[in-house]
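Example 294, ligand magnesium ion.
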Amino acid sequence: MTPELMEEGARRREAMARREAEVKAMSGDRSAAYGRVLRAGIPDFAHGVALYLDDVTVSFDGFKALNALSLAVNVGELRCIIGPNGAGKTTMMDCITGKTKPDAGKISFGSNIDLLRLKEPDIAQIGIGRKFQKPTVYEPLTVFENLELALAADRRVRASLFSRLSGEQLDRIGAVLTRIHLKDQAQRTAGLLSHGQKQWLEIGMLLMQDPKLLLLDEPVAGMTDEETERTADLFLSLEGEHSLVVVEHDMKFVDLLTQGRKTVTVLHEGRVLAEGPLETVQNNPQVVEVYLGR
Ligand code: ADP
Ligand code: MG
């Protein structure tokens, strides 16, 4: 055996061991969360609202990162949120996902679920997926294996964890691979993907869990123009089926996503400064002053 082959073998064994450990850890988390999820219930979207923030305030040592923020996102809506650095965009996502608990206000998922009563893992389990800015894929695993791992994190398919994938599961992975433009890279090691491809893979991993609401914080930062356009197409294809909240600085990307008509929310000093189509908010004198004119 050549040294290269031995090295490759060792790498694969290490990756497999890591993967098994990850899957075990994830299934452990799930069983712990399962009872709480049942108590949390199923979101009711009959009234058309996916996410509702009412008068949410968050203080850090007296400084209000969110200051009576109110916001509603409809079921199936793709909402873009813009605003200068420090406006509170990431803090808002931290509050929705349970990472930060507000001092005051209300956040609900559907018309019935009070998110402020739930812990972070429970919020993920009831269908809120979050994509952080930095991609966090499992680099030694293949693209396919990353999606398989994400599938295993879905409690509905837990029984099949260590068994072979069913036809339906293979179809689901195939559909996501097509959607994220990585079908021909399925057997490639994730660590070898481009930055943009890693971002898509992470979005694919979120999609494997079929979230009702997706939160995406600066998803095209560091992408090439072509990758940015493909990402816009991907998000547009998700609209309707999922609700999306996209925080982004790249106005070209926001324009691609909102197509001149969808609502854009401008955040400033922890509250909504303006809301409307991109062109309208871009011409709002207050918005120009705090953000776009600088
Ligand atoms: P954005 O994402 O819009 O750039 P952030 O939500 O990250 O803004 O931050 C809003 C404000 O809150 C900033 O002034 C930031 O410094 C402050 N902030 C955010 N998180 C913390 C924290 N954990 N402790 C103290 N201050 C924080
Ligand atoms: Mg931020």
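Summary: Confidence is low (pLDDT under 50) at residues 26-38.
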